[in-house]
Design a protein that fits this description.
six-stranded parallel beta sheet; about 400 residues; alpha/beta
């Protein structure tokens, strides 16, 4: 069975997470992603937070599966010539280097167009390539701070809080992957490539648009609300047994009267079932603390999974707060193939997170991230022949 992106070739100049997460998505669905790396150290993410000295880190491994790696010195004349040979046979060049790096190397969009007018240059920058902040460097948390997610996270009495997940990086990578697909689609009509740019700050602003929507009505910035919503009972994280740091379930009982009656009966408050007062949202808000205390007394008697399955069966939205260990062993996560096994050339058989996008006619066959330069000979022989120098 063919892959969705079979026949698309991507020259991958990305590093760390924002860009690599984008090109990984393309690789999963059959694009030939050729990761071009500096010969002596490669992507800096290879040795970032590694648990074994000199061995590629899991940080790198989980972001670079299904790619090929070549070692090429883009600062040398020979290396640059070989790079342009690759560009002639490519559809996309993807990069998330520091502002101005591509241009200083002499491989910016104007140079790429001269070599291949159909090329799509896909770029991630912390603040984009134009605007007052364009020359500022940024990482995930800088983007999240300046894009709004810090101010949306945490409890109102505490400072803006760093979100625990890297949506500034991988969230931007998702946006760029979509932008690439749109540019390739438009190329079918125009025959010409174009630049695709996603700023990390812009991506976070977009991801925060539901949180910030009220500002456009009231003119006042919305405030952090922790795990709940002010005045909404049954909308919060509730502690469960045995009482560990991650033993919580999030309940979101915010519908009509039927979910409330089912919840009240479940937690042993039959006296509230069918109550004319409890049918009124305003009354429930006035008694939010009492309702939440009753819910908490019940959740503390059950595990987070028992709470999730019991309420889920009643049609009440509820989720166990799953940590990494929970996710690794969860039967639903396993059924969805969100934890998969691959063979790494140094680490051996390992498990990594799977692909979240399911295409019925383009199943993903996960391959381990390549070692630095592992495919240099193969790629150059296949695409260029035997160049005099590879830099």
């Amino acid at each position: 069975m063919g892959k969705a992106l079979e026949g698309i070739r991507v020259i991958d100049l990305t590093q760390f997470e924002a860009g690599t997460s984008c090109t990984q998505l393309l690789a999963w669905f059959g694009a030939d992603v050729i990761k071009v790396e500096e010969p002596t150290r490669g992507d800096p993410g290879r040795l970032g937070s590694t648990d074994i000295p000199g061995v590629d880190s899991f940080y790198f491994i989980v972001l670079n599966s299904n790619k090929r790696s070549i070692a090429l010195d883009l600062k040398s004349v020979e290396g640059k010539e070989s790079f342009f040979e690759l560009v002639r046979q490519a559809d996309v060049v993807a990069e998330n280097m520091a502002p101005g790096t591509l241009e200083r190397l002499g491989i910016g969009y104007e140079e790429l167009k001269k070599v291949n007018s159909r090329i799509v240059l896909a770029r991630i920058k912390g603040f984009g390539t134009y605007g007052p902040y364009a020359h500022y460097k940024a990482f995930d948390m800088i983007a999240q701070a300046t894009g709004g997610s810090f101010c949306a996270t945490g409890f109102p009495e505490n400072p803006p809080t760093r979100p625990g997940v890297t949506i500034g990086d991988s969230g931007t990578g998702l946006h760029l992957a979509l932008g690439i697909m749109m540019a390739l689609w438009q190329r079918q009509a125009t025959g010409e490539g174009q630049e695709v740019e996603v700023s990390m700050q812009d991506a976070i602003i977009s991801l925060c648009r539901v949180f910030t929507k009220d500002f456009y009505v009231t003119g006042t910035s919305p405030q952090r609300q922790g795990n709940g919503r002010q005045g909404w009972p049954g909308y919060n994280t509730f502690p469960c047994k045995p009482g560990g740091p991650d033993d919580y379930a999030f309940i979101m009982c915010a519908g009509g009267n039927t979910p409330w009656d089912a919840l009240f009966e479940c937690i042993g408050r039959e006296d509230w079932v069918g109550s004319p007062d409890m049918k009124e949202p305003d009354f429930r808000r006035e008694h939010a603390e009492e309702i939440d205390e009753a819910i908490e007394r019940w959740t503390k008697q059950h595990t987070k999974y028992e709470v999730m399955h019991t309420l889920g069966a009643l049609g009440i939205p509820c989720g166990a707060c799953m940590n990494a260990e929970d996710l690794h062993s969860d039967p639903h996560v396993q059924a969805r193939e969100m934890v998969v096994s691959v063979h790494h050339p140094v680490r051996g058989d390992i498990q990594v997170p799977g692909n979240p996008i399911k295409l019925s006619d383009s199943p993903v066959e996960m391959r381990a991230a390549p070692l630095l330069g592992a495919n240099t000979e193969e790629v150059f022989e296949q695409l260029i022949g035997n160049p005099v120098s590879r830099g």
